[in-house]
């Protein structure tokens, strides 16, 4: 692999939760990093601790619009496309824009990759499997997705984004890498973004009722962001033939009720639990098969859920101006 000191990296969506953690890692590795973000769900302050670096630049722009000269006039060796809201309330707030972000954003960034002979990585999602009939989900499972439901703007948008990426690759127009990210959590998640980890920790820390949608028996498999970023970097660096999409996630599956129980215990919270209706098309279960990531990238998550939550709870406590419980690691 070429030295990352010479990498000139564009991170679309770099002000978001995963993007800002990725930028931190890339700068630490010596890369030059340009963030392109419209700050729709990302926060400028996610990058505050990195602004002292002369190797970081940040450009406000929406990827659905033609890319500005400030981007096309530079030369990039690597392009990460993370630009898309990821939380269901956020991506459903403006479904038309979400779908266009996936499709037009991918097209604009793929054309940039083509023009600059840059390697392109798409952050796709486990949502391409929909409400899966196959468990755990392997990359060759084609999914069970509604194209008319409220999640479709995101699910189908990401499926189309994958299609476009593989078409560019097949036609020799760009070298692409596609990862399918499963539920990820950790520092710099937006406390307001509505995902289960952020909701439950914030509710527990503030004594608010814990909102469980449905009966809490649905499952997810939560990956700490440090592990995820390691997987992204390894996938971008992968030098073999087109590896196909690669799942990145932690196979440790648990129910939403289990997650709530752990957070209540770790925060020593007395918050009551309240049941709200299960959103339409909410997947019943989700767990990645990560055999491909292990074989191709030598990657597997290292941070267990308990350890990851203990590292994440103090972040949310600070965001909320609350005292964090003390943990013994
Ligand atoms: P996030 O909402 O925190 O970050 C997304 C970033 O993209 C934000 O900074 C946002 O402002 C920016 N953005 C959104 N639309 C844009 C547009 N049209 N133009 C420019 N910038 C735009 O979400 P995240 O959790 O960091 O997710 C990052 C990527 O990973 C997304 O593509 C998401 O689909 C994917 N992903 C995340 C998860 C997860 O659990 N976090 C799971 C699967 C896939
Ligand atoms: N969920 C919940 N309470 C919340 C937020 C979410 O019970 O306050 C549920 C949600 O219905 C889903 C699971 O937790 O079954 C994960 O939701 P999230 O939005 O974090 O991710 P996704 O649905 O995209 O996997």
TrEMBL record:
Signal peptide limits: none
Keywords, ordered alphabetically: Decarboxylase, Lyase, NAD
Q: Which domain of life is it from?
A: Bacteria
Q: Where does the NAD-dependent epimerase/dehydratase domain start and stop, copy by copy?
A: 9-249
- Required co-factors: NAD(+)
Name of this chain's protein: dTDP-glucose 4,6-dehydratase
What organism is this sequence from?
Sphingomonas astaxanthinifaciens DSM 22298
